[in-house]
Amino acid sequence: MHEFPRYAAPSPAAVADLVRRNPFALVVSGGSPPVATHTPVILPGPSLDGAVLLGHMARANPQWRSFGAEVLVVFSGPHGYVSPTAYGYTPAVPTWNYAAVHVTGQVEVITDRAGTLAVVEETVRVAESWRDPPWDMTTSRTTFESLIDGVVAFRVHVRTVHSNFKLSQDMPPDVRARVRADLPREVAGLMPD
């Protein structure tokens, strides 16, 4: 990902928060052609610095067999089309406001059933933590165990993190306010004042 300095994330914590809140990632591995899978990838810790991401995909998906030394994991955050009607001046051109994080890292396939089950359960625990009350998976553990042979879990040992938080930072405050009012709440909430 090319990072634009003017669209830098407000903080490393904001980058980690975007990854945590948008775990349905795109995992890309090399090859000719490259292969990509949309799948949940979670950040179990508080920071991406030295982190190990956890993910899983269907064993029937051949991508895991072709994992090289590294993978690219793309996390897309909120985004929205910015119409020139929000600017309040012409001539103008439309754009797109968005936040995205690209992580590269060494991929490690988890080969044991217990490790795979632990990744699946941690993924569910993280996803359920957003619900009130969260679903208790205890009574479904036997079902999880019966499905685990159809799943491949993996770890991504984070090596690089790149991000862009393109949120109209290059606009004057009054224009930013109009753009914020015109965008979906999720995107507007990321925009600086």
UniProtKB/TrEMBL annotation:
| Stretch forming the signal peptide | none
Q: Which SUPFAM superfamilies match?
A: FMN-binding split barrel
UniProt cross-references to InterPro entries, sorted A to Z? Split_barrel_FMN-bd, TR_PAI2-type
Entry protein name: FMN-binding negative transcriptional regulator
Q: Which organism is it from?
A: Actinophytocola glycyrrhizae
User: Cross-referenced Pfam families, in alphabetical order?
Assistant: FMN_bind_2
Q: Which domain of life is it from?
A: Bacteria
